[in-house]
């Protein structure tokens, strides 16, 4: 039997090829699933695993009784995680998100500084130079500098010099807000054809659904034709699609379609946030912050239809009392300045909030806590599906204050009420003061035995929640806080008061460094919510200073405790003319009566006696009581933890400094008007050499005006002047002779003597003795002064902090009372001054008795009226009303200072002091069935 010959035909070849292909596939699968299984498993996991930061709860701030002043609340937030899978659904998803937000009364989180309608930047500062810095940073962060750098320095390869950076920044500032907006829209590809392309390419929904969306969104009328072209696109080869897409876009005018501006900007906000956050690792983009629970649930129910969207929670800073305590609490906000410094400290500058003012800022490091984080696995939609590890966030320290919430509320509430009444009834004064502009005020309450600040109010205030809770800072509030319309305000102000004055005189236009102009509140008329009037406003103390004049007179033995001085009404010594506010003489009065009646003549006389002891005698006593400080004290302070300014009493050196600052310009004018004029003012056309010479001459003259200590002043100045007139182009041709230089020197000496004459006038001391003239202090200083009288002369370091506690309530640090100075006073001095201040509130004619005379707890005090400027009436202002005092009179516990700017008289503000006393002594007063006037 013959063997059959095996035939190699096409079927055999086919099966052989199939066998080879399957063998290769099996081998590859084996390598993937067996040999390299761990490698690919690890790689797959790595792409789905990331660390999500968890914010630390900020440390609470509580008052002395434990009431919350600042805390944290768990807030629902709506976030978006972009992945390669959900990226193509961006516009469709966001449309649904925006619709759901609107339906639930929520808004997209909008911290984006570039606004529309009109196009503008809104940066949280009212400083023009700071705005420029922030604008440059905004544009650089988004890469707008790159095109400018290529244009200006096309061949530049290494780093840029400071001069080159300056040139680029100048060009950046020329890009208008609208141009910036358009560049960002282009850069982020926020235009319909990108959306159109994504819809054409997506396979997550059926073609019919995609077509329906496009037909509706892009207003396509040719439905049948469009579907046919779309199917052609879908079925074409990938390489042919760009050409087909462009054809469809042109035919259906998609490239001419624009999103509504409001919606377009919403897309931009999210795209921009994604880019800014990409510089610091993975973070979900917050679309909606602090959304209501109902809105959060509405989104949770729709998550399957919203790729990349998720709902989570995070702590948000919350101030339960709104405006209450804003003057010392401050607020938190997203990082906008000092970016590099915060980066070095580990902050995420794209999302983190920091303290910006007040205690929130000063104690940022203690309050912020430590961030936590979670190692999580994400699915392809960017949602967390598994938590693999966790680092718990650690809350910030609890800050316990010396503040009493009830007293703080009474101070703020009554200040507002008193100011409102003064505005509504502006013509109630016997002497014609008009209180229509009583819009700013402050109150400070101090524990006289510890220096702890019990209340610190500044009005108007602001609600810190506006900055901690995204979306609350509206454009209207932004303009009110950071960009007030001074011109519109001034027009209404002038019209309402019938003033004969121009807007430019009231709010003059001044040039900024970049050559632009801005209006300045020259006379401190506009109420400023962020200005702390309690710690930083200067005021002449008026008659509230008279107890200090009495102390100085009694201690220096130029006044006896029982001595009587006749009230001649008008004081005319050395050509000075000052009069008592009372129309009829009080006759012979002692120090107690003089304080009770606030008699000017009496204290003029005491001031004259102190003047004869030495020009700075009164100042030296004021310094002991914290009203100003000697010039060798580097940085005088009350000790308060938050920023403060520190006012000064009249003294010879300060007066010389002030006079020289004013008179030097008159000197320059006279020198320029000489027949052979000499110009000492620095001009733009001056060379660096001439500029330095002029500044050196200016410094030499001013130094001699102030201190008379320039050795061989005449020879030194002559030499410098000769060198200047020889080298300055505008003067070298005038052939100055020694006689010409002598004429210049005589002018200089005229003003040197004028400065000294101004500083040594007896009238300065007379003005100071009644709290006017150059005396200027903060309400905080005046409250501490009152506390020193109450406690017998001990000056405590003022403080707001009582303790720092950890999250378990354990004490980390306790602030103990600290004595800065102790003034030893004669018993008869204290007795006379205290009796005089008690008489203010108890005598029938006492200037504070009409409000405080019937208060069941005896109090001591002093009213005052302070002049804001010589021409205050011309600009619609009037004197401010002040009150200082303490209670109880026989065993003092607290001291107060109250001021209402343009409040007229001290008697008008005493209701605030009464409200403070009612709140502080509430428990004691309740026992005697006291009828509270200001406290609930």
UniProtKB/TrEMBL annotation:
Domain Penicillin-binding protein transpeptidase: start-end pairs: 441-638, 768-918
Subcellular location per the Swiss-Prot or TrEMBL entry: Cell membrane; Membrane
Tagged with keyword Transmembrane helix: yes
Keyword flag Transmembrane: yes
Superkingdom of the source species: Bacteria
Residue stretches making up the Penicillin-binding protein dimerisation domain: 54-388
Similarity annotation: Belongs to the transpeptidase family.
Protein known as: Penicillin-binding transpeptidase domain-containing protein
Annotated keywords: Cell membrane, Cell shape, Cell wall biogenesis/degradation, Membrane, Peptidoglycan synthesis, Transmembrane, Transmembrane helix
Membrane-topology descriptor: Single-pass membrane protein
Pfam families referenced in this protein's UniProt entry, alphabetically: PBP_dimer, Transpeptidase
Annotated transmembrane regions: 12-31
Chief site of localization: membrane
InterPro entries in alphabetical order: Beta-lactam/transpept, Beta-lactam/transpept-like, PBP_dimer, PBP_dimer_sf, PCN-bd_Tpept
